[in-house]
Specification:
By secondary structure, the chain is α/β, with parallel strands linked by helices. Helices cover 35% and strands 23% of the residues. It binds 6-O-phosphono-alpha-D-glucopyranose. 6-O-phosphono-alpha-D-glucopyranose (G6P) binds next to helix 9.
Length: 610
């Protein structure tokens, strides 16, 4: 979703803003723009399309300035075009601002402003903010106060930054619902929607909280609430490195992230596995473990790929912890008046830790007295900070829009959580050891599967022109079928459905013919015989079958067109292995179709609006 970067200091901000915007491209966007102040005059340059186009235009203009803002827009209100791109200005062009989020009452505000003579250029909700702040400037308030007063009238969400040419020594930044950080430097300060935009320049970060507004100058910053209460902020030093957010020689972030899964999985389990005791050690849950042993129910809410991880966890929790578990889309959960009480523990799984629906579901849970537990990747993200307790997955920065390594790390961390709680309940030490040992082997087993990359690329070549795909799995591998289908549709735009294999008979079987590739996730487990019957059913109808099967399964070879073998492990961990070939298959198909794998059309990495 929209990316925000801003600079004030002793350097020329234009290349810094472009560099920051490039770092934010991964979030997904459709237009880009910058605004600067040079000798008291503001300049705005913006366009539909890529940051590189903006950069080319700026090179010709050769602008220089010590203060400015940059923005990548992901359209919500109004089509992607130059007029709707940010920054937006007041009528006299002295004020400009950039915004991430949605101003929900913008129509009401716009009507009042129009009655007062304000003229609007764009279709965006954001433009009302420029004129609303201007209306307070006209009453004689300074830019900080005018922004504060304007925000008091606004419903909705914002990560926001404002510059006013008549007070050119300051950036005003505010946050409600959309992340915003201040990067603290030497004789320079930054603002950004996430740390990757400023990491090359500083690791000292201040996280703004909802309802806070900051006044940032070259050498100082001051934070208050929008109701003018003082706030003391701590500067946190982050450990992320630039290497972690670079492509490292791979053609795409997605491939790099798929290939680094052995390492990311190792990082997820490092120091957390107690093999001899057959359990796990998770610092983030220590203070709450006794409560977790006593809950009546687990709930899991999330969106997208993280929701698929939640579905796998449902199988894990019910099999080993033996506590009823429900999984729900965060967007549904938050609006259906959920029944939650203090003996419900609710897990919020989120790579970014910023997904608007998941964050809202978390707040709803806390309001109703449930135990809120975050399972996040991004350290210091909103969900991580607002949860009662939680566990970081430590997958490292994930830049490709289609989630890969975060998914496998979520699964391995959910397995650790299962092991920890189950062992404190009634899982025997022998069974605990078996699972712990199996977890410890997973990173190397994933490395083995990655060696099949060339073979999977060949399969991709054969199927790249298919119009539809069906993914089928049972038990633990049903969510993998959903995830395999999601990966393919996200980046290749091929229609794909994931289904529980047995359910196929109740509908999708009608679609099967010689043009329909069907991917079966069929490792040896309790449902193996049944899935073999499902394979026969597809074969009988001429469907083309690709199977993910367990090493040593020779029987399946004769039934299907292609088999990709994965190593043996316990059932609960099979999804971590079986999903890897599906990630590679989707990746190669999309590359062969010539598509932008890292920034697929219409998608955003971190969905910070509802
Ligand atoms: C977006 C991303 C998906 C992701 C989902 C949930 O749709 O494109 O890859 O799975 O959001 O994101 P989260 O950060 O909460 O895991």
């Amino acid at each position: 979703m929209c990316g925000i970067v801003g600079y004030i200091g002793n350097k020329n901000c234009v290349p810094l803003l472009i560099e920051g915007l490039k770092r934010l491209e991964y979030r997904g966007y459709d237009s880009a723009g910058i605004g600067i102040i040079d000798e008291g005059i503001s300049f705005i340059v913006k366009n539909k399309g890529k940051v590189s186009e903006l950069q080319n235009r700026l090179e010709v203009l050769n602008l220089k300035a010590n203060i400015g803002l940059g923005h990548t827009r992901w359209a919500t209100h109004g089509i992607p075009n130059e007029i709707n791109a940010h920054p937006h200005q007041n009528e006299e062009g002295t004020l400009f601002l950039i915004h991430n989020g949605i101003i929900e009452n913008y129509k009401t505000i716009k009507k009042v402003l129009q009655q007062n003579g304000y003229k609007f250029q764009s279709e965006t909700d954001t433009e009302v903010l420029a004129h609303l702040i201007d209306s307070f400037l006209r009453k004689g308030f300074d830019i900080f106060k005018a922004t504060q007063l304007a925000l008091q009238e606004v419903d909705g969400t914002y990560g926001l930054a404002v510059i006013y040419a008549k007070e050119p020594d300051r950036i005003i930044a505010a946050r409600k619902g959309s992340p915003l950080i201040i990067g603290v430097g030497q004789n320079e300060n930054f603002i950004a929607s996430d740390v990757s935009a400023v990491l090359a320049h500083t690791k000292n970060i201040i996280y703004l909280e909802d309802g806070e507004i900051a006044l940032i100058t070259e050498n100082d910053y001051q934070v208050k609430t929008i109701h003018n209460e003082e706030v003391i902020k701590e500067v946190e030093e982050i450990s992320m490195t630039l290497d972690e957010i670079d492509k490292g020689g791979y053609p795409h972030f997605m491939l790099k992230e798929i290939m680094e899964q052995p390492e990311s999985l190792r990082n997820s389990i490092r120091g957390r596995l107690l093999i001899d005791e057959g359990t796990a050690k998770l610092g983030g849950l220590e203070n709450i473990i006794d409560d977790l042993l006593d809950v009546d129910r687990f709930l899991i809410t999330a969106c997208g790929t993280s929701w698929h991880a939640g579905l796998v966890a449902e199988y894990m929790f019910e099999q080993f912890i033996r506590v009823p578990t429900e999984v729900e889309y965060a967007s549904e959960f938050r609006y259906r008046n959920p029944i939650i009480n203090k003996k419900d523990a609710v897990f919020f799984i989120s790579q970014s830790g910023e997904t608007a629906d998941t964050l809202a579901a978390l707040r709803e849970t806390k309001l109703r007295g449930g135990i809120a537990l975050g399972v996040c990747n991004v350290v210091g993200s909103s969900i991580a900070r607002e949860s009662d307790s939680g566990v970081y997955i430590h997958a490292g920065p994930e830049i490709g829009v289609a989630s890969t390594k975060a998914f496998t790390s979520q699964l391995i961390v959910l397995a650790l959580i299962t092991l920890l709680i189950a062992r404190r309940k009634n899982l025997s030490i022998e069974n605990g050891r078996e699972i712990a040992k199996a977890i410890s082997k997973i990173p190397d087993q994933v490395a083995e599967i990655l060696k099949l990359n060339n073979k999977i690329e060949e399969i991709a070549d054969e199927f790249k022109d298919a119009k539809n795909f069906l993914y089928l799995g049972r038990g633990y591998n049903f969510p993998v079928a959903l995830e395999g289908a999601l990966k393919l549709k996200e980046i290749s735009y091929i229609h794909a459905e994931g289904y529980p294999a047995a359910e196929m008979k109740h509908g999708p079987i009608a679609l099967i013919d010689e043009n329909m590739p069907v991917v079966f996730i069929a490792p040896k487990d309790a449902t193996y015989d049944k899935i073999i019957s499902n394979i026969q059913e597809v074969k009988a109808r001429g469907g083309r079958i690709i199977a993910i099967a367990s090493e040593g399964d020779d029987e399946i070879k004769d039934m299907v067109e292609h088999v990709i073998y994965i190593p043996q492990t316990v059932a609960m961990l099979k999804p971590i292995l079986s999903v890897v070939p599906l990630q590679l298959l989707a990746y190669h198909i999309a590359v062969k179709k010539g598509l932008n794998v890292d920034q697929p059309r219409n998608l955003a990495k971190s969905v910070t609006v509802e």
